[in-house]
Design a protein that fits this description.
Helices cover 29% and strands 32% of the residues. The protein has 180 residues and is of the alpha+beta class. Strands 1, 2, 3, 4, 5, 6, 7 and 8 form an eight-stranded mixed beta sheet that branches.
């Protein structure tokens, strides 16, 4: 996988998307950005608390904790190689908490990579009510299976479900299935 050329701001935005949406272990390879160890200050996630029930803003609730994998300098060529734990709290209700555990390696040659190694609660397949109402039972089932396969990084299985759903959707929508 080719490394993306990123500025510090772009790297922060990519990390935000990685934490909110990416499945576990999907890797972001980058070059150029020199900022590391910074989690985004705020995320947008669904909150299941009774006061919420919709997508809300979540704030970083702690200093990001570091779990060092090996002593610094033990591997030649690395600036750092650590796991990080970031905790976020819903800004609306203040009751729900989401935690992310991610790995970040930055090399001396100005390249690095990041992946999400854990998330609690797990990434779910929650759909907007309007989308659920617009799909028939078969399409809804196929779409949820597709999301489940994607969220658990089953790759090709998600493509198969997407193809199954997308084909039926495309036929009914007059050929506009690309909005899947």
């Amino acid at each position: 996988m080719a490394a993306e050329q990123l500025t510090n701001g772009q790297l922060t935005e990519k990390l935000l998307v990685l934490l909110q949406e990416w499945p576990l272990y999907r890797q972001l390879h980058y070059t150029g950005a020199d900022r590391s160890r910074y989690a985004p200050d705020e995320l947008r996630l669904f909150c299941s608390h009774e006061e919420c029930g919709f997508q809300t803003k979540w704030k970083l609730a702690n200093n990001v904790s570091t779990v060092t994998v090996r002593p610094r300098g033990a591997v030649s060529g690395h600036i750092h190689e650590d796991f990080y734990l970031a905790k976020y709290v819903c800004r609306n209700c203040g009751q729900r908490v989401t935690r992310y555990f991610y790995f970040w390696k930055k090399l001396n040659d100005d390249t690095g990579w990041i992946y999400k190694a854990g998330q609690s609660p797990q990434l779910d397949g929650r759909l907007p009510k309007a989308l659920e109402d617009a799909l028939d039972a078969d399409d809804l089932s196929a779409y949820k299976n597709c999301l489940r396969m994607r969220n658990f990084n089953f790759g090709i299985a998600a493509v198969a479900y997407k193809g199954s759903f997308g084909g039926r959707h495309q036929l009914r929508s007059g050929g506009h299935g690309e909005n899947f």
